[in-house]
Amino acid sequence: MQNSAKKRIQNHLAYKLGQAMIHFNKEKKGGGDTGAISNSL
To answer: What is the CB neighbour count within 10 angstroms for residue 37?
Structure first.
């Protein structure tokens, strides 16, 4: 049971990291509609 919870947390963090990286890349390029992504962080 604990193993599945640990896996779920790891997956969630990996997802959030991916979202943050997408947001960072869009910000760095200076454009794009990043409102939806930045609001979810």
So the answer is: 16
Instruction: Answer yes or no: is pLDDT of 35 > 90.
Output: no
Cα separation, 8 vs 23, in Å, equals 23
Amino acid letter, residue 22: I
Dihedral of the CA atoms 17, 22, 28, 32 (nearest 10)? Answer: -150
Task: Give the gyration radius of the chain's Cα atoms.
Answer: 13
Compute the half-sphere exposure of residue 41: CA atoms within 13 Å on the CB side of its CA: 15
What is the longest distance spanned by two Cα atoms in the chain?
44
Whole-number pLDDT of residue 28: 75
